[in-house]
Amino acid sequence: MNIVYRALSDPTRREILKLLRERAMTAGELAEHFAITKPSLSKHFKVLRAADLIQGEKRGTQIIYCLNLTLLEEALAALLNLFQIKENIDEQRKD
């Protein structure tokens, strides 16, 4: 799970995930949202793929990226559990 948290620690990678939450996108479409070089963006994709937060499918000369919601949900649930946030929320609702 540490690889997931490392991937989520970068604001650029979090923005990529936010964009992919809306819809699957090509690498070029994602690049339009950032003022960084394509090689730098490619490194971010590599980290996100290694953490299994996104999946890339090659279609012709393009790569279409989509969000792996299952793993993201698991990572967030583990983080909430780590800080016992759900229990605190449930207790606040009782009050």
Question: Which SSEs are present, and which pair or pack?
Answer:
Blueprint: H1 2-8, H2 11-22, E1 25-26, H3 27-31, H4 38-50, E2 54-59, E3 62-67, H5 69-82, H6 85-94
Antiparallel strand pairs: 1-3, 2-3
Helix pairs in contact: 1-4
The profile of the biggest β sheet is: 3 strands, antiparallel
CATH superfamily: Winged helix-like DNA-binding domain superfamily/Winged helix DNA-binding domain
The CATH architecture name reads Orthogonal Bundle
* N- to C-terminal distance: 33 Å
Which CATH first-tier class would you pick? Mainly Alpha
Order of helices and strands: HHEHHEEHH
Shape: elongated
Going across the biggest sheet, name each strand in turn. 1-3-2
Rg (C-alpha, Å): 16 Å
Q: Low-confidence runs (pLDDT<50, min 5 residues)?
A: none
Number of helices: 6
Q: What is the structural class? A: alpha+beta
Q: Would you count the extended β strands for me?
A: 3
Q: Summarize the amount of helix as a percent range.
A: 55-70%
**Portion in beta strands:** 5-15%
Count of all domains: 1
Q: Name the average pLDDT.
A: 86
CATH fold-level label: Arc Repressor Mutant, subunit A
